[in-house]
Amino acid sequence: MSRIEPKNYITKNKTNVLIRVAHRDDAEQLIEINLKIIEEKLYMLRQPGEATYTKEGEVKNIENLLNCEGTLYIVAQVENNVIGYLDFRNGGLKITKHAGSLSLYILKQSRGIGIGNHLLKALIEWAEKNSLIEKVTLNVFSTNERAQNLYKKLGFTEEGRCPKDMKLENGTYMDSVLMYKFVK
Fold first, then answer.
1. Which pLDDT value is given to residue 169?
2. How far apart, in whole angstroms, are the C-alpha atoms of residue 118 and residue 16?
3. Do residues 159 and 179 lie in contact, with contact meaning Cβ atoms separated by under 8 Å?
């Protein structure tokens, strides 16, 4: 099972945040985070109206991720509210199990205070201890420089770009930036 020990941190704005494993009771808040970020039209592949989430589906997703040795699903909680999360999924085949990809989402009002940093450090620490995981990867929008700077600060390297990977509503294109970090 993929678990971390819950740990409290103090953010840049002096907020106490708990980083812990996601559990079933988080499902509705996790869906709400996704829907709010989709509405921003900045950092999600889905656009408003394209996402269909159900509580039952999210509970199943949480349980599936918690019961695989190469996956991790963690949340950032302030008081009783989940304000962000990170999920990591390794490859499902023998030749890809050593590597996996992360997704990181934080509510707009909680960005820029260190939540992403704490979630990523928890993932890296877990991956370094997990005998299966050797490489952590991610895709980030080329326009999301704040996220790219955080990833670089934590040792991620740009692996490449997918030019014109996404086409926005206004007809402009955006690249995907592929990044990685070896943990072993």
1. 84
2. 12
3. yes
